[in-house]
Design a protein that fits this description.
Length: 395
């Protein structure tokens, strides 16, 4: 049975081009880039090339790119650096729908370190109230950390506008752009954003590699203290295969960028319309337009998400009921709860996230099989929905 993978916001397949590019750095070109000899030094030049590619994708300069182990490390580094370099400011502004990498760090800092965290709400479409944002950022705010795009719904936030508000108050801005990089145009050279986090395994590079953008002139305190690596901003021997792979993935993302994202969006929209048409009492969670081109979060009322996923798995369909970092919990999604998604739908919400490797035939298969799964599960449900209004709800 063929696997149809629609869980790309959790992780992506390593691109063939990336795999072939990094293979020699495990076997033939294994030198330490800090070594004085040519064998190691030639590897160091590959890191330079990767840094240039990553900078080009982000509209930044190579000196503003630091390679890390992934999004979580980059998130922690940004927030802790801001607090360290601005000790007189004791407030953090963030949203209620952040990834656990930011959410749980902020909770820890409030509980254990006495920081005040101002939690921004979202409306039923998953969007921020910009008036609330302006009120929350004060002269005591050290950092504003707002994700560029939500990992569960794909809803995008106006991070560049937020960074302007923060800069006017003297606060730093960090954005977790793990889901956004490679899917939407980003030009950091024209923004007030101080820190941006990204993770390689979300854009067809290996796991265990990421990057942190640090805007030129931003005060910075390292999280990983050790050697001189990464311009003395992140100690430790570099993950050369990962870095080279991330550079290759950045170049692939820039190649046919617009065409690929339009193709993925068209498949996403076909999936959305097909499921809403065939499954009664279903709803899109999140804003219809202000979202990533690859992401669809749809709530099927009166069924359990875990049961849906198990039945899908039997059919070779891989999707998610939320963030991969919270999938071990039976609690309903904190993102959907913050949006006020009704109880009847929040437990039955499924995230479909596509990539360049999905095909139209795969989407048609999912549209064919999913309604059967929902129908079977609803027949077993204690809720009687047969006599209820069968109109689909699209927010």
């Amino acid at each position: 049975m063929k696997t149809i993978y629609l869980d790309n916001n959790a992780t992506t397949r390593v691109a063939d081009e990336v795999f072939e590019t990094i293979r020699p750095f495990f076997t033939e070109r294994y030198g330490n880039p800090s070594s004085m000899h040519f064998f190691g030094g030639s590897v160091g030049r590959e890191i330079v090339n990767a840094r240039e590619s990553m900078a080009e994708l982000l509209g930044a300069s190579p000196q503003e790119i630091v390679f890390t182990s992934g999004g979580t490390e980059s998130d922690s580094t940004s927030i802790l650096s801001a607090l360290s370099t601005m000790p007189d400011r004791r407030e953090i502004v963030t949203t209620k729908v952040e990834h656990p990498a930011v959410l749980n760090l902020c909770k820890y800092l409030a509980r254990a370190k006495g920081y005040t965290v101002r939690w921004l709400s979202v409306d039923k479409f998953g969007k921020l109230d910009m008036q609330e944002v302006k009120r929350a950022i004060t002269d005591n705010t050290a950092i504003v950390s707002v994700m560029w795009a939500n990992n569960e719904t794909g809803v995008m936030f106006p991070i560049e506008e937020i960074s302007e508000i923060a800069a006017a108050r003297g606060a730093l801005t960090h954005t977790d752009a793990v889901q956004a990089v490679g899917k939407i145009p980003i030009n950091l050279g024209k923004s007030n954003i101080n820190f941006l986090s990204l993770s390689g395994h979300k854009l067809h590079a290996p796991k265990g590699i990421g990057a942190l953008y640090i805007k030129r002139g931003t005060r910075f305190s390292p999280f990983m203290i050790g050697g001189h690596q990464e311009f003395s901003r992140r100690g430790g021997t570099e993950n050369v295969p990962g870095i080279v792979g991330l550079g290759c993935a950045a170049r692939l993302a820039m190649k046919n960028f617009q065409e690929e994202n339009i193709r993925v969006k068209n498949m996403r929209d076909r999936l959305q319309h097909g499921l809403l048409e065939k499954v009664s009492q279903s709803r899109v969670n999140g804003h219809i337009e202000a979202r990533l081109p690859n992401t669809l979060n749809i709530g099927f009322e009166f069924v359990e998400g875990e049961a849906i996923l198990m039945r899908m798995d039997e059919k070779g369909i891989c999707a998610s009921s939320g963030s991969a970092c919270t999938s071990g919990s039976l609690e309903p999604s904190h993102v959907l709860r913050a949006m006020g998604v009704p109880f009847t739908a929040v437990h039955g919400s499924i995230r479909f996230s596509l990539s360049r490797y999905n095909t139209e035939d795969e989407i048609e298969y999912v549209i064919e099989e999913t309604p059967k799964i929902i129908s079977t599960l609803r027949a077993m449900s204690p809720f009687n929905v047969e006599n209820m209004n069968t109109a689909c709800i699209v927010q």
